[in-house]
Write a structure and sequence with these properties.
This protein is α/β, with parallel strands linked by helices. It has helices at 2-35, 102-105, 115-118, 138-148, 163-168, 200-203, 205-211, 218-226, 238-252; strands spanning 46-49, 53-56, 61-62, 72-73, 94-100, 126-132, 156-160, 173-174, 178-179, 182-186, 189-193. The chain has 2 domains: 1-28; 41-200 and 241-252, no CATH class.
Amino acid sequence: MRLVKLALVNGAVLVLLGVVVEGLLSALLFTWDVVNEPTNPERRHTMYDAKLGWVAIPNLHIPDMYGPGVDLRTNSRGFRGNAELLEAVPQGKFRVICSGDSVTLGYGVDDDHSWCKLLESLDQRFETVNMGQAGYGVDQAYLWYKRDAATIPHHVHLFAPIVDDFRRMQSSTFFGGYGKPLLEVEDGSLVVKNVPVPTKTYRVPWLTEAARHLGSLRTVQVLGRLGGTSAWPPPNPSRVDQKQRTAQSSQSS
């Protein structure tokens, strides 16, 4: 009996030790992911905006943004490219405003190789305006155009959404917690909610970036299952998403 009890105690100790080690390793991996989380590259060329969540920083030049010689520039209006936009359409030109997300912005390519800019190579009469913005949903693209471009003389507004842009407009946050406006229909009219957009995610960006990894903790997963829902939304796969956007932008060139 003593040998049986000793075996049971030793077994229990081993199980308990395994649980502790598993917990420590889970915490270690979580810490590793947080410490090695790459900074969201879009934070380099965007700033907080109370009505849109974020918007491009005007008059900006980031050398080698996407690699050696692949720069990113914005003009005084915050549109991509260093060409200033005249109030009136130049004589003989056909002005096209391009709206969309990072694919329209030209993630991964330089200013002259976004699909919007490449339209000018099809016809010398085209003058294009790149209003693509990283991470935007249909709602933000619409609100930005309505606020900053609707009164600018132009012939065509070319809107190029992807599937994710429609998903994004269903949430008041993006990419692990960055606040954004939310469009809803009330009495047949569009109503903008969640404005002014909360600023907490912009005050502590490292916490916003790290928060996406909370879902990897077993404690969070167990609490989610006990509650019948996910305790934390699945993180946006930043590395995969960035590769996809780079590939999409490169294909446009």
